[in-house]
What we know:
Blueprint: H1 12-22, H2 24-27, E1 42-45, H3 49-60, E2 65-68, E3 80-81, E4 89-90, E5 95-98, H4 102-105, H5 107-118, E6 133-135, E7 143-146, H6 156-181, H7 199-211, H8 220-224, E8 231-235, H9 239-247, E9 255-256, E10 261-266, E11 272-276, E12 281-284, E13 286-289, H10 293-298, E14 302-305, E15 308-309, H11 313-320, E16 324-325, E17 327-333, H12 337-341, E18 353-357, E19 364-368, E20 375-381, H13 382-389, H14 403-425, E21 451-452, H15 461-465, E22 473-475, H16 489-508
Parallel strand pairs: 1-2, 1-13, 2-9, 7-18, 10-14, 13-22
Antiparallel strand pairs: 3-4, 5-8, 6-8, 10-11, 11-12, 14-15, 16-21, 17-20, 18-19, 19-20
Helix pairs in contact: 3-16
Amino acid sequence: MVAIRRVPALTRRSVLRGIASGAAGLAVGPGCCGCGPQSDVVVIVGAGAAGIGAALALQEAGRPYQIFEAGSSVGGRAFTDMTTFATPFDVGCAWIHGDDDIFNNNSMMQTVDKWKRQRRWQSETFDKGDWDYHDCKELEFDEVSYGCVAEARVDRSKVKDDLQKAEKDFKAAIKAELEKRKPGDIPVGQVVKDWRWPMDVVASAMGPMDAGVDLYNLSAADSAATGNYAHNVLVKNGYGTVIRLLANGLPADRLHCNTRVTEIRSSGAGTVRVTTDRAGEVEAGAVIVTVSTGVLAHGDITFGDGDKDGLPKDHRHAIANLPMGLLAKVPLLVPNIGKMLESKNPPIKQFDNVISQRSDLQNIYFLVCPFNDNLVVGFVGGDFAWNLARKVPVVSQGEQPPRKAVEKVRKEAVDLVRQRLAGLVGCDLQIDPDNGYLTDWGWNPLTRGAYAAPKPGGFAARKTLRTPAFGRIYFAGEAVAEGGWHATCHGAYDSGQKVAKDVMAMLHHPA
């Protein structure tokens, strides 16, 4: 059975971090590790892209900080599986999304391009520091198939033109509808007038495959505010590898993995008390919370201000209006598909984006052979993905879901994707059912979904969570990313950097 292997590459630095994490209860405390007075220390909750971004900003400014990560390694929803498929596979975020000027406007693309020119991290990367990448441009579908037979395809020459026009017209219709209702909101699904081709495929792309929710659960205002995804870049070494290597710049005594934060309580006297399961209580001048809104909504961390329990009403309302969407992956090793790609007229090509569309909305998107001639990645999103994930019982942080339930849903997802892929290529495929898995974001207690998608009418929730609670508890991450880059890794990283600067300004001039 193939399982997700969340095992970071072992380096001297990561070993030191493991030692530091194991001794967290001894190492953490006011004034420890050169951290200075407790009112100066910033505690960061979560070592994903946002947490690492915040930490690097604080470190550059010479500010003391501590990071607590509930998982066993850094990266959060940016995690690259380096072992299962003989090439890096991004279990979570994979594309660096950017506008027309991606090399100047995207922090992650700038980082990868710089490392490529420097041939950096040669000993810790799959391609020895070459940092190869592939730009999928606007990530449009190359093939569209209905049902499970190869013959039920849309003419390939028409796919891109028809979808481009339909998407452009639909986005214009959304904006026109919002203008009528200003400042109101509406589910995107209510704007659809005709669900036939090509609108049905546009709906799949904009809803489940992009936002992780079906169109009737998608805020039109949020959709209209999404950034311009003119470029979508896959990194051969893996996006998770990029985030992990950025974290190599953090001192080992500041990063504490396998340490859950259970309570954050403002004292009302210029400090915040952070309670953990392994390091006891830590006093800080401010806290930056980077966990998902799914974790916040589930109550895995409790909040308070003095003797009062809970977050302010506006923050609670915002979290309730920012539920998690779900986009899950089903990677499959297909040993004979590489030869098929070499044939004279292959039904699919490397890096093709193919969607298998169905009237019951059990749609599957396929990314064909990304940097690996034997790997095909199926994607399921929205209600379809949640219906699979919810077959695994919800567990608390620190607990493992039942193996039998996980294995059962894995087999179901792998078999479903295998059958649909076989239909697309028009022949049976030699796929070992054990050579694939369903990514666990839907039932993982550290994420409880893929990324936040506001309910229709809840668009303002992102803005609300950008304001600190009780003056010293800040929120960062993809859910509150600015510039239209919500639900993206670079948006989360940039959010962490910005919030860290806001925190430093507050500590320098407290109210």
